[in-house]
Amino acid sequence: MLYIIFVVVAFSASIIGAICGIGGGVIIKPVLDMTGILDVKTINFLSGCTVLAMSTYSIVVAKMAKESLVEWKTATPLAIGAAIGGLLGKGIFQMVSQAMGEKAGAVQAVCLIIMTVGTLLYTIKKEQIKTYQLTNIVICVVVGLILGVASSFLGIGGGPINLVILFFFFSMPTKTAAQNSLYIILFSQLASLFSTMATKSVPDVSFVLLALMIIGGIMGGYCGRKINKKIDAVMVDKLFIGLMVVIILINIYNVIKFSTI
């Protein structure tokens, strides 16, 4: 039953993640935290690995099929910054976790609520908000750094905050932003995974469970790509807004749950 729950969550989250460009971690992390089956560190690790597998699959397949919308000159500096930020975010989470134990989950949930509410408001009002088109490489690296810290600390891969940044600072259309977001997520999660392995802080988790979640993530990425091709940007935005509302509610529950531990 444990394996079924985790695989279903990984698969479903990765479908939505591939469609919207949020990676899936922003769904996997709070949903699994809500179950209370595993500790926060282990869920962070499983979520990160699943998101890494899905984003890698989506980017590679899109490139091979010549359907890639990644704006390499902009996304690569962002991704490099995100990789560095991923290392920093991992270190910050470890310090918070050591100081607070499982209550670190409450800190993550509060941060996710703030981030998600901001993202929801921006998405609803984005047609009325002036956007920019930054090209300076140094600024791109700094922006990527901030994204990497946030995504790694929260254990979500990148999620909604990536899309808002790509909309606002780089004037990317919805579907273009989705692919570029996955490219950035790939780098930040790869850096976070290397950090975990280098510091020998890999949680004691079943290899079978990890493998099943990765498979679920890749399958979800496959299905998500197929669906993304068949729906327009307006539908993607509606799905994204609905998802943000659900994520906010789940994280409110998690704040209460972890605060009473």
Molecular structure report:
Helix 1 (2-20) runs parallel beside helix 9, helix 3 packs across helix 9 and helix 4 packs across helix 8 (174-198). This protein starts with a helix and ends with a helix. The protein is mostly helical. The protein is built from 10 helices and no strands. The mean pLDDT is 86. The chain has one domain. The chain has helices at residues 2-20, 25-35, 40-64, 72-100, 104-125, 137-154, 159-170, 174-198, 207-230, 233-259. It is globular.
Radius of gyration: 17 Å
Distance between the termini: 25 Å
Number of strands: 0
The portion of residues assigned to helices is: over 70%
Overall spatial form: globular
Strand content: under 5%
Please, what is the average pLDDT?
A: 86
What does the largest sheet look like?
Answer: none
Low-confidence region ranges: none
Number of helices: 10
Give helix and strand order, one letter per element, not per position: HHHHHHHHHH
Structurally, the number of domains stands at: 1
**Alpha-beta content class:** mainly alpha
